[in-house]
Each structure stands twice: as structure tokens, then as C-alpha cells.
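Letters spell out the chain; backbone shape is given numerically. Both lines appear below:
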Amino acid sequence: MNAPHTPPFAGRASAVARIRQHIADPVGTPVPAFVGRDGIGKTALLMQFAGMPTDNHIGVYLPLKDIRPDDEIAWLDALYSHTEATLSAYDFIPTLAQRRPPDADAATLKQWFRDEFLTAAFRVIHRGRRLVFLLDDAEVLVETMMRDTLAEDYFAYLDDLRHPQCAVVLTLSIAYENRLELFNTITTPDQFQRLGNLDAAETAGALRQARAEYDAAAISAIYKATGGEPSLLAAFMAALPAGGAVGAADVKAVRRDIYDGRKAAFHAVWADLTLDERLVLTAISSLIYADPLRPVAAGDIEAWLVRTDYTLDLTAIHAAIRGLEYRQLVEGNAAQKLSVRPGLLQTWMLENARLEAGDAPPSHDAERDSQSLTVLAVVVVVIALVAAFLILTGTPSGSAPPAAIPTATLSAP
């Protein structure tokens, strides 16, 4: 078989293992689904799997964002054409009798693809090998169904395609992480796996697959700058020499250009943060800049914020740190040492991150001042009423003074 070119790939061992296990699982097992933000490597994972056929599978990669089916027939035609092209690439050609019937409606095409075309495909790929439909950005189907241009049972149809020789794998945008019930027809929540950044070893593995020879200093510099984010890692690999030795000086030479190309993306990340997350991220960034060798802990963040108009207690700080860790923008231990990842985001923070005064929550001093003014206003009103009463009623000469005159004491702030 002549497999298509597959780009360098590293990491994702657990994700690849889950797909392979699914191929071996019984037909009724819920399909695996991988969730992640843009640029995290969902597409690379599926393309890698599609580009490495084995004796037990052939992957059919379906880039739904590119296909963008606007009706059922368009979607079925894409499913058919991508499957046929994949089989042809590996020299598996279903018999011509299984060609698409002309002028067929959607219902006819659905039945033909399932009962005739796939049956012929299973024969030519041989028993024991599975055809695996790799649906990249499967939320596109949900969005299309919501526009009423695809039948609402389309995941049921995909589930119906599953067979001892046919499996399905999905990837989804992180935006659908809290809407997993939309995919209940074909999978279950326990089958979803969130893809994150590569660790240091996985980053080094990806770099070592390139033709260039990256020394240890270059690998360390790239990991520090990217934090293992696959899209940033790919940008460095594209910008650096394709062959020969690559050192830290080469990484430094391209760092600014890569940073300039990512400014809009970093701004979008900042805009998506909550106010507390912005406060904490700004504090960490500023503390690291002031003293790169000094560990930054939650207590340091609290002390730094006290000097601003944006104070947070430790409970709020820890909650914000957890949110930033989940987004993979901060790593470390809140009790010992925190750092901003990727390093290019730290650069953007120092150059661009600003907290607008209008976003500040009222400080405790401001609250106390407001309370004091309210009390003072009440006292003034009471005194004015007493004075008016005395003027209107008068006090007889020689008479004893009133038994009591109302008084008020302002409590110390």
C-alpha cells in the first residue's frame, strides 16, 4: 500500500492508545471523542492515525470544517468521496457496480452507502481490518442539524454505520465541552478526552523527528517559549532551518517574528479570561519580571494586589489559579512557585496587558468611606431636626434643659 505523507508527530500516546483500543472493542462500544481548543493538535492526531494504516485499520479522515455540508446530499457525497479516495490511495478499489446512483435522494443515498458501498469496501479491505471514519470538528454536524439542513438523526445514522469492520472517532471544539449531551446518540461522557499541551519530553520528541538537529539548548528554549502548545511548536519548526544544526541562537533569531504573528491570538486569550484570572495572571507576570529567580506563590499575589485597586482574598486567588491551570496558561504549585506558560504569553502580558480602572471592584477603603458618608448624612439630618424642633417649640427661661439631647458617635474606620 502507498500511504500518503504524514507530518512529524509526537506525544498523544494515551489518545492513540484509546483509538486503537476502540478498534478492537465490540461494535456497540461508545466512540472515543477528543476535545480541545484550536491549535491543540486535534487535526494532527486524526491525520497521524489516518496516515498510518495497519493490518487492522484504515482511517478515512473527514475535515468537516472544510467540507461544510449544507444539506444531506452534500454530506453523503463527501462521506462517499473521501472514503473512495482513501481506499484508492491504498490500492483498494470497490467494484464499479457500487458507484453512486445518479439523481438519488438523501434517503436512497443513505441506504446505498450503508448497504452497498460499505459492504463492497469491507470485502476489498479483507476481514479483520476496520474502516475508521475520523470526523474532525464533529460539532459542524451539530451546527448544521440546528440549521435544519441535516436530519436530526444523523449521529444515529453514523452509529448505524458501525460494524465489525467499521468504527467512528470524533474530535470537538472546546466550546462544546459543556454540551456533550448533543452527542449522546453515538458516545457517552466517559469517552471524552481533553487534549492539552505537550510536555517537555513530547516536545523534544517532535523536534527530533525533524530533519534538523536541535541541540539541548534549542529544545529547552523552544519549550520555554511555547509551553508545549502544538501550534506554537509548529510555528518554530517552520521558521527554523529545515536541515543542519539548530542552536539557542537560531531560536532567539526567529522568536520575535513568531511572537508578532501570535499577538492577536494572545489578545483573544486575554479577552476570554475572567477579571479575577486577569488580575492573578498580571500579578504573576509582574512578579516574575521583577525578580525572575524568586518563587511566586498565592500569598505573593495577594500582597502584590494589595498595592493596587484590585484586591482579592486567597480563596478567590486560588480559584483563579485553578482556572488558569485548566486553560494551561499557568503551571506550578500555588503554595510554592507559579509561572506563565507559554513564555511568549509572558512577553505579551508585559507589553500589552492592562487592567482598566472601570473594571476594578470597590476596595474596602471605598466601602468604608461610603458607609461613613452615609452615617454622617444621617447625623446631620438628626441635628437639623432637633434644632428645628427647639426653634419652633422654644425653651422657657429658667427652665431646666431637656433631659436628653440625641447624640451620635462616628465609629472609627
